[in-house]
Amino acid sequence: MSATQGSDKAAGKTKKFGKGEREIPHHSQKAKKYYPAEDESKPRKVRKSVKPAKPRATLQPGAILIILAGRFRGKRVVLLKHLAQGVLLVTGPFRVNGVPLRRVNARYVIATKQKVDLSGIDEKTVEKVSEDGYFTREKKQDKQGEEAFFKQGEKLEKKKKITSARAEDQKTVDKALLKTLKEEEHLLAYLASTFSLRKGDRPHEMQW
């Protein structure tokens, strides 16, 4: 009996008004009298699925690339591996042109016809560097107080120190890569030079 009474209450009542009938909803089904002042944020429905990035045919591991944007724009680097979402793992090497192991967006590079043999590079080190959390920055644990905030101009800020593990990984990759680069004439000088356009240059007619 209690179950049937509960269902009747939820369904509401039917009353006669003149010749017709009208269903009166239960108080639990009536519209709310209170509404929030601001619209509640709802997650946006995305119908498109995230598709894996398709690398260009010219972007093969070992190819020498020219970086077009960012801190190292104009530098020539060696492509080591393709990462997720169109990101490339490259290196200078660091001893040649100062470009360390870093990730670069594939949209901002030009691939040249020149290639380097990567057979001597340690694959375990490349896999370690290509992990997701390798390039993430460490969070600062100590918070600055008021005195430290006002004394910022008095003392020079400390330079960011690179972790010893990352420096060792850089040396491991560069050591094997430099051995291969020295075998071919003028290749080290080519990587050390910076690419730039001058007045009258036509990049669409250049052969990379």
- In whole angstroms, the N-to-C terminal distance is 85 Å
Instruction: Give the low-confidence spans.
Output: none
- How much helix is in the residues? 10-25%
Query: What string gives the helices and strands in order?
Result: HEEEEEHEEHHHH
Task: Please give the oligomerization state of what you see.
Answer: single chain
Helix count, per DSSP?
Answer: 6
- The radius of gyration is 32 Å
Q: What sort of overall outline do the alpha carbons produce when their principal axes are compared? A: elongated
In short:
With 208 residues, the chain is of the alpha+beta class. The protein has helices at residues 2-11, 94-97, 123-129, 146-150, 164-181, 187-192, and strands spanning 13-17, 20-24, 63-67, 76-83, 87-91, 102-105, 109-115.
Describe, in plain words, how this protein is organized in 3D:
This protein has about 210 residues and is α+β, with helices and mostly antiparallel strands. About 25% of the residues lie in helices and about 20% in strands. It has helices at about 1-10, 95, 125-130, 145-150, 165-180, 185-190; strands at about 15, 20-25, 65, 75-85, 85-90, 100-105, 110-115. The strands form 2 sheets. Strands 6-5-4-3-7 form a 5-stranded antiparallel β-sheet. It has a two-stranded antiparallel ribbon with strand order 1-2. A hairpin with a 2-residue loop joins β1 (about 15) and β2. The radius of gyration is 32 Å and the shape is elongated. The model has no long low-confidence stretch (mean pLDDT about 80).
